Every structure is written in C-alpha cells, then in structure tokens.
Amino acid sequence: MITVDTSIFIDLLFEYDSNRTLKAEEVLGIILEKGLEIINPTAFKVELAGVLTRRMQIDKALEIIKSILFEIKLIPNPDELAFDVALKTGSRATDAYFIATAKLTNTILITNDRMMAINAKKYGVEAYYLIEEFDIAKKRL
So where are the chain's domains? Predict the structure, then answer.
C-alpha cells in the first residue's frame, strides 16, 4: 500500500511543468505496474473535486474523479490523528489528513508538495518529495 497526495494526480492531469508531469506519470505507472494499492483519506476526493471543478465543467470533473477513484481505496478521514499531526507540525488541514493516513496505515507518502513531505518526515512518516527525491522514491517502490 502507498499514500499518494492529490498533487501527484493534479500534475498528471495538468501540465504546468513537463518535468513534474513526467515524474507523476512515471511514479503512478510504477505503482500500477507493481499492483500497489493506493490508500488515501476521503479528503482526497473532496480536494480533487475542488481542484478539477475550478478548471473544467462538472460533468468532465466527475468523469475523471470516478476513473481515479476506481484505482484508489479511500478510508475515513483519521480526524484525531490528523489533529495531532497539525498540532505537532503546523501542517495544513488536508496535508495533515494525508500524513495521518500514511502513519495510520504504515505506508509511504508520495507528494509534489515540499511542505507536506517536510511535515510528514517531521511526524515520522516515510515521505518523498517527488520533484527532488524522484530516483530515491522509484527505488523505494
């Protein structure tokens, strides 16, 4: 199992920077190829919906969300653990949910959000900031 932050999926779907998109594409390809289960908090679905509907029509966003969720196991938001993460690291709420999910499920966290990776490591979660730790993350997978 692995926890994959929304930032990876957004970089896959929208090419702001071709390097980020290629890394997201490759790491998700490795995850699927190896049959690793992605496990995320339900906050992932909400965050993804918000980002997508700011950039496209709702029907298209729903289609993409459904196709992505087909590949992901969502767990209930670990509220108390996320609260502890936020208290101890100062992380943003959604980041705290991803960090807490990785901690709770004893999975690694892959993200394109530098602060999330820093806070996850601070909280004792094995995390990789894909933009700078791409080769290490690939080896770990």
Answer: 2-140
* Closest to 41 (Cα-Cα) out of 10, 69, 13: 69
Q: How far is CA 106 from the centre of its chain?
A: 15
Q: Which fold has domain 2-140?
A: Rossmann fold (3.40.50)
Query: First CA to last CA across the chain, in angstroms?
Result: 10
Ordered strands of the 127-129 beta sheet = 72-75, 38-41, 2-4, 108-111, 127-129
pLDDT greater than 90 at residue 16: no
38-89 pLDDT tens trace = 999 999 999 999 999 999 999 999 999 999 999 999 999 999 999 999 999 9
CA angle in degrees (0–180, nearest 5) for 58-64-66: 100
Name the one residue in this structure whose structure tokens are 């993200």: 111
- Is residue 66 classed exposed, middle or buried when 0-12, 13-18 and 19+ CB atoms within 10 A define those classes? exposed
What predicted TM-score, i.e. pTM, was given to this entire model?
0.94
pLDDT score, position 15: 80
As a whole number of angstroms, the distance between CA 89 and CA 35 comes to: 32
**Which pair of tokens denotes residue 51?**
């980002």
